[in-house]
Amino acid sequence: MPVKILMPALSPTMTEGTLAKWLIAEGDEVNPGDVIAEIETDKATMEVEAVEEGKLGKILVAEGTEGVAVNNVIALLLEEGEDASALDGVDTSNAAAATAPAAAPAPVAAEAPQASEPTSPTTGTNAAPAPKTTEGDSRVIASPLARRMASQAGIELAGLTGSGPNGRIVKADIEAAIAGGAPSAAPAPAAAPSGVAQAAPTTAEKLPFEPEFELEPLSSMRKTIARRLTESKQNVPHFYLTVDCEIDALLQLRKTLNDKSDGAFKISVNDLVIKAAAIALRRVPKANASWTDEGVKLYKSADISVAVAIEGGLITPVVRRAETKGLETISTEMKELSARARDGKLGPEEYQGGTFSISNLGMYGIKEFSAVINPPQACILAVGAGEQRPVVKDGSLAVATVMSCTLSVDHRAVDGAIGSEYLSAFKRLIEDPLSMLL
Predict the structure, then answer these.
(1) What CA–CA distance (Å, rounded) separates 325 from 319?
(2) 68 within domain boundaries
(3) Is 357 in the same domain as 248?
(4) At what angle do helices 269-283 and 248-260 cross, to 10 degrees?
(5) For residue 66, what is the domain's CATH number?
(6) Among residues 95, 214, 351, 371, which one has the fewest Cβ atoms lying within 10 Å of its Cβ?
(7) Domain check: are 255 and 173 in the same one?
(8) Which stretches of the chain score pLDDT less than 50?
């Protein structure tokens, strides 16, 4: 009996993914540990290894297919002594139902930021037509995603021919209809009366008086970012605390350490910020927390999530137990994590499970900003650029390099006094950086 190769769950929260690439072809011999495919999740592209030996008998899900549900059958592996005839009658009814995207479809209807609805691979010219009905679109066989896209684009489902199993209308059919200029089921929206504000657009159609645009389709990562940040701002009661830190001593310490490294390492301001944030959590442990309905989790180590900008979004690789690590170790880890993040090669254990986040936009010249909390964490520190500002010292005006840092706090888990105590500890460490080394 052929072995079913299933869509793997590459993280605890993964429910579906994109089969980005097959690295073997039908008929190839496979051994345990061989890399057979690349799977794209909302966070990274990861390699999948074979766990059985045999010969790849049949690929059921083409590369490029989106919305493949976890545990769906993606291929069949022939065991020793089996030939192609063994594939007959194998139950693949739960095979992934998403369709590989059509070549360069015209991106008009944007997909809503929800999980993609799986659809079946097209079966070619023999696909059965979609059933028609006089009772409207409600009884036409179509995937929920196809219905949503058709509604957004104003397309009548009853006028389409489905390419999915049993004539089911799927995402690719809607995209093809949009590209081909299918008849609209709804009139174009009327212009808003003079002096009346227009509602924010929820679909991708061109609004009255709106300039021409090019629609960029939503990636899995962008959908996840949108969903998580919306949930955070809606469900987490944020408050914000800001301090100004003088960093001249920190910059001098950084220069001294880098000069003594003989090129073996190069410590950044961000590395020092990570170290200071972690030590401050050790000194104010109640800030190293997250909220649950059963109680407040107080973490015993400072696992610092650091926001890294990547193509199409951002990701937060984690420096584990940063309070126990030296600056050279933190610097080396961050360089490696950032490089793998930009290549889409981070494992789930490398970007999940942090206890506190840092977002540093100082390198872009941003003076000050407030970051959105990264649930379930209770705090995120937004770090601005260091710039020379006038300061008063002992009654006299002087110039110092000042960096503004804003702490966004979940008020359910951390009160204002605790947040203030934490920022005070962080400020002391930044302004007296030698104390980090004690």
Answers:
(1) 9
(2) yes
(3) yes
(4) 120
(5) 2.40.50.100
(6) 214
(7) no
(8) 95-138, 183-197
Residues 418, 415: Cα–Cα separation, whole Å: 5
Q: Is residue 259 part of a domain?
A: yes
Residue where a domain terminates, one of 60, 87, 114: 87
pLDDT given for residue 389 in this prediction: 96
Residue among 374, 328, 340, 369 at smallest CA distance from 355: 374
241: CB partners within 8 A, 6+ apart: 406, 407, 409, 416, 419, 420, 423
pLDDT, one tens digit per residue, over 211-243 is 988 888 888 788 888 988 999 999 999 999 999
Q: Are residues 76 and 193 in the same domain?
A: no
Rounded CA separation 161/128 (Å): 8
| Residue 138 sits in the same domain as residue 287 | no
Whole-angstrom Cα distance, residue 429 to residue 438?
Answer: 11
- Between the CA of residue 278 and those of 293, 308, 319, 363, what are the distances in Å? 26, 18, 10, 21
- Among candidate residues 87, 115, 139, the one where a domain is terminated: 87
pLDDT value of position 128: 38
pLDDT of residue 35: 86
Active-site positions? 411
Question: Does some domain include residue 93?
Answer: no
Residue 87 identity: L
Domain with 149 in it: 102-218
The total domain count for the chain is 3
Residue 141 lies in a domain: yes
b vs e for 347-369, b when ≥16 Cβ sit within 10 Å of the residue's Cβ? ebebbbebbbbbbbbbeeeeebb
* CB of 206 closer than 8 Å to CB of 188: no
Of 139, 149, 103, 104, nearest to 122 by C-alpha is 103
CA-closest candidate to residue 305, choices 376, 237, 370, 257: 376
Only one residue has tokens 């397309």, namely 155
Tally helices (H) and strands (E) across the chain.
8, 18
pLDDT at 9: 79
Residues 183 and 249 in one domain: no
Summarised one tens digit per residue, pLDDT across range 128-173 is 333 334 334 445 777 766 776 777 677 888 778 877 656 778 777 7
pLDDT at 116: 34
Q: Which of 280, 290, 281, 341 is nearest to 316 (CA)?
A: 341
